[in-house]
């Protein structure tokens, strides 16, 4: 009997795929949680569904209302499809420097889209504040607030973490993740460490984000910039605050290029930019900790959401990024150096 009532019920229960090429090279099992299998194409479907379900249970959100969210795109796409399942509308506020691919998908899902100029968080025109204002102005609008909303954490604590634990029958040595709101790393790390406090959690942070420096010095400061989207934060938000992190590493866009080409060529997986960063982080963790480990990371979305940046020769030329190491063994050598080891932040008490 077919009993799927709506698309939102297809969210989660994603596969775990072994990245053969990197597993063979490192002697570790490097596992990829295939979050692109979610119906909206990204890991953010999970947070979207949990935020909506919890708000409906509290009576804050009802069918006929409009969900508003400031988003780099993927959370908006997730909310748009969940909104349809529950008879709601979706309004996404997005900075206009994100890959156009995501704007198009949002519109295909029937979301209304407001794009704004990128600006610092302190500016009232920041997409986060604009979304909040919209909700304040309209009684039938509900602001999801993915950065501060604990349902985002719950999505991963209740689902992503348990799925990984079951899929690997508890054989998890290391979890590697980047953070946008921190929901993924916080919820998953909390669940896994409850099962086994020895699970080591690595945060991988792109250039331009302040999380690496925050974990190193207690201060948010970033250097440079990154082509990655949906990840990197310059302030402490509630979801990231709950993350239980043991190690933090900052990796440049050049590593994302080397890694994404390697995995595309050897394994046939076309990773999105945050996913390529995650896998580079997993490679770094494998090299630093030695063979025999089971290391899990996330394919948050696929390269089709990054086509106009990560896979565009014109874009890479404009950014001066064409001169990246072509061979992944160069990355492996770099990650094995003492100089590199010294850059890895050891965090106090896993969190
Ligand atoms: C492609 C992609 N990767 C990673 C993340 C980060 O996930 P989280 O917000 O759970 O930290 C996001 C968030 O929007 C994303 O869009």
UniProtKB/TrEMBL annotation:
SUPFAM superfamilies recorded: Tryptophan synthase beta subunit-like PLP-dependent enzymes
Keywords: Amino-acid biosynthesis, Cysteine biosynthesis, Pyridoxal phosphate, Transferase
Pathway: Amino-acid biosynthesis; L-cysteine biosynthesis; L-cysteine from L-serine: step 2/2
Pfam family, one: PALP
Catalytic activity: O-acetyl-L-serine + hydrogen sulfide = L-cysteine + acetate
Domain (Tryptophan synthase beta chain-like PALP): residue spans on this chain: 10-301
EC number: 2.5.1.47
Keyword field contains Transferase: yes
GO annotation terms (biological process): cysteine biosynthetic process from serine
Gene Ontology molecular function: any one: pyridoxal phosphate binding
Cofactor(s) the protein requires to work: pyridoxal 5'-phosphate
PROSITE patterns cross-referenced by the UniProt entry: CYS_SYNTHASE (PS00901), DEHYDRATASE_SER_THR (PS00165)
UniProt similarity note: Belongs to the cysteine synthase/cystathionine beta-synthase family.
Protein name, per record: Cysteine synthase
Organism: Bowmanella dokdonensis
């Amino acid at each position: 009997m077919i009993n799927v009532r709506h698309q939102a019920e297809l969210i989660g229960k994603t596969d775990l795929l072994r990245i053969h090429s990197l597993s063979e090279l490192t002697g570790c099992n490097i596992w990829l949680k295939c979050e692109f299998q979610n119906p909206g194409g990204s890991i953010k479907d999970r947070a979207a569904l949990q935020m909506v379900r919890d708000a409906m249970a509290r009576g804050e959100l009802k069918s006929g209302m409009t969900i508003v969210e400031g988003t780099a795109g993927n959370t908006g796409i997730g909310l748009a499809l969940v909104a349809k399942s529950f008879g709601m509308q979706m309004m996404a506020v997005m900075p206009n420097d994100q890959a156009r691919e995501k704007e198009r998908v949002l519109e295909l899902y029937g979301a209304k889209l407001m794009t704004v100029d990128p600006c610092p968080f302190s500016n009232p025109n920041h997409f986060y504040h604009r979304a909040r204002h919209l909700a304040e102005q309209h009684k039938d609008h509900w602001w999801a607030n993915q950065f501060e909303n604990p349902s985002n954490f719950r999505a991963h604590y209740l689902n992503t973490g348990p799925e990984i634990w079951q899929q690997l029958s508890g054989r998890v040595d290391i979890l590697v993740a980047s953070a946008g709101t921190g929901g993924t790393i916080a919820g998953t790390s909390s669940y896994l460490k409850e099962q086994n406090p020895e699970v080591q959690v690595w945060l991988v942070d792109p250039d331009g984000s302040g999380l690496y420096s925050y974990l190193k010095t207690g201060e948010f400061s970033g250097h440079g910039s990154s082509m990655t989207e949906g990840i990197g934060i310059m302030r402490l938000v509630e979801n990231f605050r709950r993350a239980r992190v043991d190690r933090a590493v900052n990796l440049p866009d050049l590593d994302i290029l080397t890694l994404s080409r390697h995995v595309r060529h050897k394994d046939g997986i076309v990773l999105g930019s945050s996913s390529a960063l995650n896998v580079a982080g997993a490679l770094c963790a494998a090299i630093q900790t030695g063979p025999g480990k089971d290391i899990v990371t996330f394919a948050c979305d696929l390269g089709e959401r990054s086509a106009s940046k990560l896979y565009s020769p014109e874009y890479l030329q404009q950014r001066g990024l064409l001169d990246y190491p072509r061979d992944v063994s160069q990355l492996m050598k770099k990650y094995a150096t003492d100089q590199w080891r010294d850059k890895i932040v050891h965090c106090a008490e896993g969190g």
